[in-house]
Structures are given as structure tokens and as C-alpha cells.
């Protein structure tokens, strides 16, 4: 009986060590497959969760701005973009929260040329309105903030989560901007001012915002 118990313990220990070895090998293989720009000088390790919006959309670290991994991500089988770029997060948030998506773009700044989104349930075209920074149209939840190519040669995109008109603060969600852990259910706050009936978001390289007329909730 004592020999049988010892044998069982040895078998369990061997199985445990085997599982650890398989896990370590998979992690090592993943790390080795990443480009050098995605493993060195990371603000937060590549693929780590930076934060989660109140609706449950997670943002992942892209290590740092130079990191590019041509690995497509999908949500429920729907293409969202290249991990873990800002465009991928923007498209994934729209799919989850609005049932909308848009076609592929070379870089985030190209989203400024978007005139419509595609509604997933019927593939209908949903128009987008374009408002330059300093527009009379105030930003609102679900707007797409688009930044010019002057920002790192690619631009940037973020989603407006909330607007506090009393405090003059817009809270946004995004990926591959600072790659830092979020302070709450949002990535960062952007101050804005209202002057002569126009709204100015005080953020460098911001072109303006894209808005679905009437909203889609």
C-alpha cells in the first residue's frame, strides 16, 4: 500500500511538472516570436491588460509605439484589427457597443477620411459626421477622436467614453498611446474649453471627432 501511494504521488508530480514545462515552452515560444521592439523598453509587457471600460471592453498593451505584430484579432469571428493597435481597440469597441464596424485602414490617421460605418446586423451603411477640433458640435459618448499623421507618422484613434461639460473633461478609451495601466474604467482625461460657441479639446495633433448622427445605442 505504501509503495502504491508513493507511486501515485510520483505520477501526480510528474504530470504537474509536465504541465509546467508545456506552459513554460509555450510562453517562451510566444516571447521568441515577438519582434525586438515588442519585448524591449516596454512600458507594460506586450499583451498585458491595461484596463477595462465599464461596458467590459479590455485594452491591451502594445509594449511601446514602435511595436507592430501582424497578428489579426477577432471578436466573435469578426475581424477587429491588428493586435494591439489603436485601430483594433476602436473597431472592437464599436462592434461590442454599437454593432458597427469599418473597413481596414493603413494607419489610424486615415480614419479621418471615413464617411460611414457598416451596421453588422444588415450590412447597411451608417453615415458619419466629421467635426474639426474647434467645432460648434460638442463631442459626446461614442465619438471617434482622430489624430493626424504628425503623431508618430501614423496618427491615433480613441473612443470618447464620457463628457463632463461642467468640469470641461473628456474621458477616452484607447490602445497603444501611453501603454500605461488605466486609472479607472478609462485610459485618460482630456481637457476641453468652450469659447464663442465652439469646443476645443486640448490635445496635440487632434484633428477632431467623427460622430454617428443621432447616436446608435
Describe the structure.
It is a single chain. The protein is α+β, with helices and mostly antiparallel strands. It folds into 2 domains: about 1-35; about 35-210, endopeptidase domain like (from Nostoc punctiforme) (endopeptidase fold (from Nostoc punctiforme)), CATH 3.90.1720. It is about 20% helix and about 30% strand. The protein contains 2 helices and 14 strands. The protein has helices at about 1-35, 85-100; strands spanning about 50, 60, 70-75, 80, 100, 115-120, 125, 130, 145, 155-165, 170-175, 190-195, 200, 205-210. The chain has a 7-stranded antiparallel β-sheet with strand order 8-14-9-10-11-12-13, with helices on one face. Mean pLDDT is about 90; it is low at about 1-10 and about 15-30.
Can you tell me the number of structural domains? 2
Helicity, in percent? 10-25%
Rg result: 22 Å
Could you describe the largest sheet, including whether it forms a barrel? 7 strands, antiparallel
Note poorly predicted spans. Answer: 2-8, 13-31
CATH structural class of the largest domain: Alpha Beta
Shape: globular
